[in-house]
C-alpha cells in the first residue's frame, strides 16, 4: 500500500511539472511570434542540445518558480565580450514586475528551475515539403531538478512566415 501511495504522489508531481513545462513552452512561442521576421530576436539560429556562450542574442533562458513566495523569474545571460551580465524579469505574487535585477536569479529550496532553449530554422521541411519563406520555431523546456526521474521535458514547434 505504501508503494502505491508513493507512486501516486510521484505521478502527481510529474504531471504538475509537465503542465508547467507545457505552459512555459507555449509562453516562449507566443513571445517569439510577436517579433517581426526581420528583428534580430528571431534571427535564424539556436540549438535544442547546447547553450552557446552568452552573446548579444541568446537562444536560451532560465525560468525559476518559487513555491514559497509565488514569484516567477526569467533570467537571460548576455556577454559584451568581457563580462557576463544577467537580465531578470521577476513577476511577484503581488502583481509587481521588477525588470531592474542584474544578478542571477536565486535558487535553492522552494525553487522550481526550468531551462528553455529554442531553435529558429528558415525554409523548414515539413512532411517532405519545403516551406519557402517560412520559419520554424521550436522550443524545448527541461526541468532542472535531477531528483525527478525520468527527467521532465516538453517540446513544441510552430511555423510562421
| Helix and strand run | HEEEEEEEEEE
From the spread of the alpha carbons, the general shape counts as: globular
Beta content comes to 35-45%
Number of helices: 1
Helix content: 10-25%
Distance between the termini: 54 Å
Report on the biggest sheet: 8 strands, antiparallel
Summarize the structure.
This protein has 161 residues and is α+β, with helices and mostly antiparallel strands. It has one helix spanning 2-33, and strands at 45-46, 60-66, 72-79, 84-91, 97-98, 111-122, 125-126, 129-130, 135-143, 153-160.
Main attributes of the structure:
161 residues; alpha+beta; two-stranded antiparallel ribbon
